[in-house]
Amino acid sequence: MKSAPRPQLPRRAFLSATLALGAAAMIPLSAAGRAAAATGEPAVADCASWGARPSSSPVKVVPAPAQKIIVHHTATPNVTDYSQGQGFALARSMQNWAMDSQHWIDTGQHFTVSRGGHVMEGRHGSLAALRSGTQTVEAAHCAGQNTIAIGIENEGTYTTVEPRSEQYAKLVELCAYICRQYGLRAYHIYGHRDFNATQCPGDRLYALLPQLRRDVAARIGGDPTAPVWPLLHNGDSGDKVAALQHLLVRRGASLQPDGSFGPATEKAVRDFQALVTATADGWAGNQTWQQLVVPVRRGESGEAVKAVQRLLTARGIPTDVDGAFGPGTQSAVTGFQNTAGLPADGVVDARTFARLLG
Ligand SMILES: [Zn+2]
Prior knowledge:
Blueprint lengths: L10 H11 L9 H8 L5 E2 L1 H4 L10 E2 L5 E6 L10 H18 L9 E3 L5 E3 L4 H7 L3 E2 L11 E6 L10 H18 L6 E3 L11 H5 L1 H12 L18 H12 L12 H13 L10 H7 L10 H12 L12 H14 L9 H8 L1
Parallel strand pairs: 1-5, 3-7, 3-8, 4-7
Antiparallel strand pairs: 2-6, 4-5
Zinc ion binds next to loops.
């Protein structure tokens, strides 16, 4: 959920909605639903099924695949009503909270998994965008990541207990489908606290994420190991600092990427952390790197490419630091990936970036 504490949802609203839905809870599978099932798509109740309000203005659709998945908990009670109607009532309550209290245009997340294992579409258009595999709906679930990350809310509070096995199984299924549709790897799955200063998704669900990545990798293949980022702070120097500075410049900082982490770099880090609602401590660690890095590939240009070129050179693969990702940079990247035991796809995603820094 969002970093701000969410007010307790009114219990009476849940109960009455659940009763009202009782008989209508079984939604027949449409022709589209049957076709989707053939592609490995889990059963997802769309906005119309759970009775969503229209968005207050048109949702924005980004014409690019999502780059990652972010797991949340709703921080609502761990209910023992596992019916579909309960899930639908939750979806409506969350949308009401988002629109009436937060004044967002629609609910914040892309998808919701109820305690009963019912999967629901969140913000309008999320399901169609996912099915396209080429579009992402802009959402409001994680500051700094809302145009590039799919947000999944898991009903409940997982600070001291784990999700129910039925709920977890649906989360695995949903994540595997999202990875397939957007061409993501299991290590592109994160928790909300990896980006923002928040307890979400709770200590116990957060501790389950390595298992979640393994379970998703078991379905889609590939290495589930999450990237490990260096911790840099005032007084450090070298090519890792220069890479950090290039990424900060890309986000608007006025800095000379000189490889020296002094007061100006510390201020740039703090300003950036405040901008993306990360822990504003001036140290560049997991949250900061994960907010800063973007996948780079052939044909792209700019400061992120310069960061990659500088790191390749530092790893003994001389590369012109010209900010243009051409054939030379691509062969340097695949060369590095080969020596690092990574798939040599020439794309610098979070894992390759972290290994370049390692
Ligand atoms: Zn969250």
